[in-house]
Inverse folding.
């Protein structure tokens, strides 16, 4: 397996042309992204997948949003104080993402790791669009993003999502409920409306980005087997 | 897109920008301009590049650690700008202020392009920003600017000297080359964006007279010499 990987040198594929100095690099590893709303079971699935891939002899690295050492804390702090405008938050996330992409994801892929990303630019694109930022602007902004090799979206019914959120936290997160949008005075109603808007954005992006929807309403192991099967097929074919 | 059109059309205020490399004299001039507007009782607000409280700390942390790449460098400055834009520049322009900007989006264009970002990408990132009413570009030979900066400062900082570009191992030489490349970018922008060129080697008073004479033309009625309370409705 490791032999197979190291032969598979291929040129990095980006969405746009923002970073000329990175466009010539070659990657060995595979880049897998799992998208989905809060409490959709992404991290559980990523844990299961990591163990499986490691058991199969792949070196695995996990990535995700708001994880760069440099910027993540700043975003949290700023969000807590409710001072930032939508465009500022959008750019802040983009900076955080860029830091991880260049300092973590790309080096790991060059070294032949399988990179599993818990969310990626699509969540950020959806959040921006729902907040009225032009899609053309955000798509240009993320032109420096590397295209994943395979990309899943855990699709969970918002009403089911609500139960899972309460099991996890017993309260609704301000931003995940879209409370900054003023959709409804009622937090639960706002959450449901917001999640529907985000899901709609994902459906809109599905074809453009080759997003594979996964029915996330099923039992954990059932979803896991489904994902593993698709990834196994994919890793064998390429 | 629709939204940003609407936003910029609403502006009752005026946006005056100074651009130019470090040591070109622009900051001195814009501060004098600020004093002048204040003395005329015109509501004025001065905003500086890289000065948002929320973002500045992170940018300087990244600079200290030396872990900023051209893209993160660019995006953090864009975040800083967006924060000042959303909270200060735009609302103040809409409420009729004269907003003075010590560096604006052109600083990002020049620096990011020199650092290797794609020019089209950078321009699009800043597309949401309104066009200034006037941009004063302080043009000065690189030697004079470098000399002005170095005489007041014993040591250059890593990013300030453009050391991340690997232009030279000597920070002073690197700084010189970096500044010359920025001048090249500014000169290109000057034509495309219709900058008003200010000779950065002029005496301070002379430059200021020039700036004030042009700033006056931004107002339909001439700027009164003394505080005058308008009684007209």
């Amino acid at each position: 397996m490791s032999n197979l990987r190291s032969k598979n040198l291929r040129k990095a594929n980006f969405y746009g042309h923002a970073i000329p100095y990175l466009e010539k690099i070659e990657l060995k590893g595979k880049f897998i992204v799992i998208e989905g709303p809060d409490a959709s079971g992404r991290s559980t699935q990523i844990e299961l997948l990591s163990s499986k891939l490691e058991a199969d002899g792949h070196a695995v690295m996990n990535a995700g949003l708001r994880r760069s050492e440099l910027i993540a804390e700043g975003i949290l702090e700023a969000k807590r104080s409710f001072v930032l405008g939508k465009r500022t938050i959008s750019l802040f996330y983009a900076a955080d993402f860029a830091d991880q992409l260049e300092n973590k994801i790309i080096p790991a892929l060059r070294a032949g790791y399988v990179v599993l990303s818990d969310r990626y630019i699509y969540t950020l694109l959806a959040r921006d669009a729902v907040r009225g930022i032009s899609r053309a602007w955000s798509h240009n902004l993320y032109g420096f993003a590397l295209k994943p090799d395979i990309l899943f979206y855990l699709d969970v019914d918002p009403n089911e999502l609500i139960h899972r959120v309460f099991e996890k936290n017993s309260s609704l997160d301000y931003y995940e409920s879209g409370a900054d949008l003023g959709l409804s005075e009622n937090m639960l109603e706002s959450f449901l409306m917001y999640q529907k808007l985000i899901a709609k954005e994902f459906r809109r992006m599905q074809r453009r980005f080759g997003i594979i929807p996964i029915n996330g309403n099923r039992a954990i192991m059932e979803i896991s087997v489904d994902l593993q099967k698709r990834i196994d097929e994919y890793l064998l074919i390429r | 897109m629709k939204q940003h059109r609407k936003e910029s059309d609403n502006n009752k205020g005026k946006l005056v920008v100074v651009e130019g490399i470090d040591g070109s004299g622009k900051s001195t001039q814009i501060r004098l301009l600020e004093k002048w507007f204040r003395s005329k009782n015109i509501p004025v607000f001065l905003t500086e590049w890289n000065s948002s409280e929320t973002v500045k700390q992170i940018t300087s942390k990244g600079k200290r650690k030396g872990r900023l790449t051209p893209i993160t460098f660019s995006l953090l400055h864009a975040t800083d700008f967006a924060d000042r834009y959303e909270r200060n520049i735009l609302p103040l322009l809409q409420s009729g202020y004269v907003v003075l900007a010590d560096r604006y989006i052109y600083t990002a264009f020049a620096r990011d392009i020199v650092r290797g970002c794609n020019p089209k990408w950078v321009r699009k990132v800043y597309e949401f920003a309104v066009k200034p009413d006037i941009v004063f570009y302080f043009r000065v030979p690189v030697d004079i600017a470098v000399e002005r900066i170095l005489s007041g400062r014993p040591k250059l900082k890593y990013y300030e000297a453009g050391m991340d570009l690997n232009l030279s191992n000597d920070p002073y030489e690197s700084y010189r080359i970096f500044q010359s490349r920025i001048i090249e970018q500014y000169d290109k922008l000057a034509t495309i964006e219709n900058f008003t060129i200010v000779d950065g080697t002029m005496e301070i008073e002379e430059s200021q007279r020039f700036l004030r004479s042009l700033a006056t033309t931004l107002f339909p009625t001439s700027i009164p010499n003394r505080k005058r309370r308008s009684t007209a409705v």
